[in-house]
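Budget justification note: compute hours in this period were largely spent on complex prediction jobs such as the one shown. Inputs:
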Amino acid sequence: MDKPAVVVEHLWKRYHKRFGTSTLWSLFGRRERTDDEFWALKDVSLEVQPGECLGIIGPNGSGKSTLLKILSRITTPTRGRIEIAGRAASILEVGTGFHPDLTGRENIYLSGSILGMKRAEIKKRFDEIVAFSGVEEFIDVPVKRYSSGMYVRLAFAVAANIQTDILVVDEVLAVGDAEFQNKCLGKMENVAREGRTVLFVSHNMAAIRALCTKAHWLDQGRTAQIGDAASVVGGYIESMVRQAARPLSDRADRDGDGSVRFTSIAVEGVTPDGARAVVAANDRIRIRLGYRASKAPGPLRFRVSINDYTRGGIYVFDSDAAGGVAAPSALEGMVECCTGPARISPGPCYVNIAVFSRSQLADRVSYAHSFTVESAGFDGLRSLPSRQNALCLIEQRWRMEAGLQ
Amino acid sequence: MICARELWEYREAALYLAWREIRVRFKQSLLGFGWSVIQPLSLMLLFTIVFTRFMKVPSENYPYPIFIYSALLPWGLFSNGLVRATGSIVNNAGLIQKIYIPREIFIVISLAPPLADFLVAAAVYAGLMAWFHVAPTWQALWVFPLLIAEVLLILGIGIWLATFNAFYRDVSSTMGLLVQLWFFATPVFYPLAKVPARLMPFYRLNPAVGIIDGFRSALLKGAPPDATLTAISLGWIVFLLFGGLLLFRRAEGYFADVL
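Corresponding output:
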């Protein structure tokens, strides 16, 4: 076998909660107080062969970003060793080095060179980059005049055209509209097929499954599982389901400023005969969220998404999009969302919830709840497609005609 | 000891970043490079009024405007360069946390705009020489090695301050005061000869003295820079650069974590 493209051996990374990694003095051997230290990576080892595409998965705070930063040489490991054979580029954000006052053309050269492309290479690929981004007309306009969509497209186009042996990519696909995301995924697939080595971090399990040959699952800084992408993703999803079974008040893995916190969640199926704990495809879904605010909140905006474990979002329910919800009258309360018929194909789903107070994220819990859509009847369909084949159900009528059209 | 090869590999990125610094500065500005002329000229006028009308400061028989300008020229580079170099790591936090580029590059490129200003201001000096009938001599060629020495001195001090600043922002808060004090401790608006002899042993420890006074000697007096003072400056440069690089090498891996 060839020499591995990337070798990581027993990587440890310590942060200090108060001071980043360390005070200046600790670089010269002075001991730090140990009560505020925190290990972001604990003994992580991995090996990537040339041409392999490795997906790195794990919940928020599991050390994925730290690992990528060390692989990109942005930060130094506290202990351990990495070795990279070949030219590597890392894309941890879209638009690295972009400056709002410079034109699209200028930014392509600037960002490209920062990402490690040679001037001649950029020149050669310039037209391709511009065509991929679709901003031809505005190429000589400062990018601050771009719409955010155009900006992101141009930025990604630069990153996508980097030609290095090894590519380290953070979740850059989480930007742009759906069409552009597909375009990006396609581009990534090409990169993987061209036989280049790719290390890819994503929350999108479908993307990991589609792009990666191997996956590395991190949990609280430790390696939870390494193996072929499908089985690691499966294991990860299972653990997420288990986690969703924990009561909401026990969950510490939340985002947001904490001015409002979710305290409970219940999901029920509503039939003409009443509510029940299971959801069938024909049922309306009723979601009840309990919350507690630390001080009298203004109007709140709630977002609930229902997701498939491998393919991501099925529905997003947004209280503002649906006309808003009355401002809460007490610090503690309950908000309820009732939907139309679910029409989700049978199989497991999980629920992410978020609340915004004055358009600031107050609380967000991923995998807050899970439920299974029963395979019981959906009007007019005698058998339902499985989740692998379809996310949603819809009534249909078939008709046969004789003769040529 | 430093990976010169690595720096060389990133030369294009460095050039683009330097170009960005200059370009961004003059975008959406009416006067653009005009500021590089207005700034030193207005300082020259101000100092001339204060030090010829309000109080008399000797200028070694040269017209005061050109006397002060010959030192304001390198001083502008020194003071602006120092402030920018000190802030260079913190100001590029966004990039440093997202991509690997040898971090020394940020300190070097932070000097691009002050250097551009210097070139414009130097052209203005040529005009002043004609105006005041000061003929250039061959000694003026000293400005080239002096310029290199000055840039190295700024880098040498800057690498220390930029590193400290990454960990403790207090450094950049102190810069305004520091530069002001430094201004008075350097022969810019007064001649070196007016420094009391008993203070001289301390005074010439200031590494900027040899360089700023060297510029004035070469550009105005047609004399070579003072050998002792220059040697002191060079000693500082070597010490600051090597020590600074050692410190920097040790610290740079943690910049992304503390910024």
